[in-house]
Inverse folding.
């Protein structure tokens, strides 16, 4: 099972064994990782599961769809490595993934 | 109420608001006893996918649950499922359950939700006639969703239209009956109604508006057709009713707690009894940006009120009250709604409905009060903030797609 490390905005880290097929958001929520709200439950409707993806994994995390792109365009503190974690599917290729959560989702 | 006094919190109901309140209470540092009472057999789960991806079979059941079973153990939450709260004994601060058990509380959160408005006609109890509210409903509906069969959907609200889209995509023959002269009449403008009716018709759904259902016909106890007031019979192998919901307020009402189309609460989600809170579909709350009370049937509302109740119980500062928002997925259309459009005096269309990417802004006295954004996240996200800020916006500017939404928002905020 791929391991994903969540880094809080203050640097605190937590590594979790993730199940393939789940979204990175679901892995975070199921394990009560702070900093990810995911109010809409993964429908790409709310932009409250924003994370920064470690540069080395950006390509492996998959292409952004149009909807996600335009949602992120309006999120706070967006960076080039911003993603909505509900749109990243866990695969073996993501073993070792590190994502950082922003200070606030609003 | 100081946090020191509260050692026992009971939550009646196990939906979105309850799940949020549990999390917020533990995150807020509450380490006393926490009991969840749910009348369904399942742990708290998300309802939105029931009429969307889950109904279509594109979403595994385990992904519906807010938290895995282990979370409740870790967090020391006592979970009583298949249990119904029947009476609140306020003088002794005790909640009575259907099977005779009693739960004393220092604070009680009513997150009892809502129930489908029953079909008020003959034949509503036939086999093959369904509501769409719970996981158990979908388990009954899904095996009947077979290509080529006839489904009649009663009510063209969001639930009815989302189910129509799923049924059509699964190859059923779909007819939607609506009493009002247009679809989504209760919740949106004629512009959106026309767009969605057109979209469903193009997908092959038969939509009959201004149509009165007389009753349902059956044979050997199973539904066979929907009979209209004019005598027309529409063949039906199954019927799905989506004619609105009723707040589950009886538990509160019977205990003498103030109710009026929902359990009345203040901005802290507190009812007329200071030890009792209400959150979610069952509660009627102050809509601070609109200067009135109202009952919102939405995920955002359930989450927000769950947080408000938890904070008030723990004596923490009141969390922010955000602009109400909603979403609906039909076919490849994502509708995102911010604000409440009732009472608008002007609407502005931005973009082209034919291109299936547009937004309708609703203004009152030149102030933005709501938006319906179809496949248009920037318009939705910008409007959430502009509505909260009470921004005044010129209709001509809003409708001008050559100015990006970001620039319009920045200018309005300046």
């Amino acid at each position: 099972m791929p391991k994903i490390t969540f880094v809080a905005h203050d640097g605190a880290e937590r590594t979790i064994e993730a199940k393939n097929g789940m979204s990175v958001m679901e892995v975070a929520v199921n394990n009560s990782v702070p900093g990810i709200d995911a109010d809409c439950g993964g429908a790409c409707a709310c932009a409250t599961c924003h994370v920064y993806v470690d540069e080395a994994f950006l390509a492996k995390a998959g292409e952004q769809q149009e909807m996600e792109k335009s949602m992120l365009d309006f999120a706070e503190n967006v960076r080039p490595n911003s993603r909505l974690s509900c749109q990243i599917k866990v695969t073996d290729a993501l073993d070792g993934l590190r994502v950082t959560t922003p200070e606030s989702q609003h | 109420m100081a946090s020191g006094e509260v050692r026992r919190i009971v939550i009646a109901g196990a939906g979105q608001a309850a799940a949020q309140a549990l999390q917020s209470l533990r995150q807020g540092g509450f380490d006393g006893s926490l009991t969840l009472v749910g009348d369904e057999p399942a742990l708290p789960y998300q309802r939105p996918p029931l009429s969307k991806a889950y109904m279509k079979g594109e979403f595994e059941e385990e992904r519906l649950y807010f938290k895995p079973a282990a979370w409740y153990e870790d967090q020391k939450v006592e979970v009583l499922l298949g249990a119904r709260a029947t009476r609140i004994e306020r003088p002794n601060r005790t909640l009575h359950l259907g099977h005779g058990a009693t739960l004393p509380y220092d604070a009680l959160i009513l997150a009892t939700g809502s129930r489908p408005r029953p079909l008020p006609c003959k034949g509503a109890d036939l086999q093959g006639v369904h509501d769409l509210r719970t996981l158990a409903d979908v388990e009954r509906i899904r095996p009947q969703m077979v290509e080529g069969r006839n489904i009649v959907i009663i009510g063209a609200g969001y639930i009815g239209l989302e189910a129509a889209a799923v049924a059509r995509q699964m190859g059923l023959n779909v007819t939607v009956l609506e009493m009002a002269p247009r679809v989504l009449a209760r919740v949106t403008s004629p512009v959106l109604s026309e767009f969605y009716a057109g979209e469903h018709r193009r997908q092959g759904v038969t939509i009959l508006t201004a149509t009165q259902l007389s009753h349902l016909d059956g044979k050997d106890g199973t539904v066979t057709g929907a009979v209209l007031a004019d005598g027309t019979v529409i063949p039906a192998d199954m019927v799905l009713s989506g004619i609105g919901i009723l707040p589950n307020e009886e538990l509160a009402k019977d205990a003498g707690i103030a109710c009026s189309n929902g359990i009345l609460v203040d901005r802290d989600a507190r009812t007329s009894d200071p030890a009792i809170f209400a959150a979610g579909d069952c509660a009627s709350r102050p809509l601070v940006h609109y200067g009135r009370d109202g009952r919102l049937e939405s995920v955002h509302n359930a989450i927000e009120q769950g947080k408000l109740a938890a904070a008030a119980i723990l004596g923490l500062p009141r969390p922010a009250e955000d602009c109400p928002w909603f979403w609906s997925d039909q076919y490849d259309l994502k509708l995102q709604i911010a604000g409440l459009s009732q009472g608008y005096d002007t609407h502005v269309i931005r973009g082209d409905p034919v291109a299936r990417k547009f937004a309708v802004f609703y203004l009152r006295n030149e102030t933005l009060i709501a938006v319906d954004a179809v496949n248009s996240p920037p318009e939705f996200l910008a409007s959430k903030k502009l509505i909260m800020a009470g921004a005044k916006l010129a209709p001509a500017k809003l409708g001008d797609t050559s100015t990006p939404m970001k620039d319009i928002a920045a200018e309005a905020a300046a």
